[in-house]
Amino acid sequence: KSPAGEPIELFTPQLHKELRDRLELEQALRHVLETDNGELHLVYQPVVDAVTCAPVGAEALVRWNRPGIGPVSPDLFVPVAERSELIIELDNWVLHTAVRQLAVWAAAGVLGDRWVAVNLSGAHVCRPEIVPQVLGTLAEAGVGPRHLIVELTERELLADVELAASNLKMLREAGVRVAIDDFGTGFTSLTHLRWLPIDKLKIDKSFVTNLTGSNDQSLVRLVIETGHVLGVEVTAEGVETVEHLEALRALGADQIQGYLTGRPEAAVPRPVLPSP
Whole-angstrom Cα distance, residue 207 to residue 211? Predict the structure, then answer.
């Protein structure tokens, strides 16, 4: 530490490489978003009813395929975007692309009551322009708001709960539904949940993976029961085995999402929501 007691960081070759790689990735992503050159695309993972396994919707997930390099993991480029204003541009690209796909499915007569969920950053949800952006995108494409779910993580929601809640309330009043993703990994209190304008809780896959353990099963049961007391649906992510499915059914989950019932797939002329 310094004489003042402050931590001292050494500028090592490894740190220099990490900073250089991050800057290069940020510049490449900026170029992709500015040119919309086809390197980004969406895949859709089905969400199904926990009892019947009938498809009810899908989550839109962004993918990046860089020429000469190959697929870039979202775990790499999304955090880079979050450290800059690029996350707003990336959010908008995902939103517009997903809504346009909804319009294609609606025109083909195969959408029905199904919906698509898109992930938005906490920084974006807290901006005043988010409401007209979302509603304007839907109106331009001729897609009803009931076909869109906005997802944000518990951690991002807590960055500015009051401002986020205000914007989410306006979206919800217009017919767009709201979900909290990765629930259980943050610190949302029951007080917050009581007045947050939400329609769905999504249990983080880390709890589903170890569902046979008594501790995680108790936690999942608590989340499901809490959601139902609040009048919201509960979706379990990361469902990969029949044992997961049966346990979640017994615990009362409303919907499931995972490799067992459908892997993320590119859009086709019909919703990517195959029955298992």
Answer: 6
Can you count the helices (H) and strands (E) in the chain? 11, 10
Name which of 33, 37, 59 is nearest 273 in CA terms: 59
Q: What are the tens digits of pLDDT across the range 93-103?
A: 999 999 999 99
The answer to whether 260 and 276 have CB atoms below 8 angstroms apart is yes
Distances (CA, A) of 232 to 32, 97, 100, 194: 37, 27, 27, 11
- Contact between 207 and 244 under an 8 Å Cβ cutoff? The reply is no
Cβ-proximal residues to 257 (8 Å cutoff; 6+ apart), any chain: 45, 46, 47, 48, 59, 202, 235, 236, 237, 238, 239
pTM, two decimals, is 0.88
What type of residue is 220? V
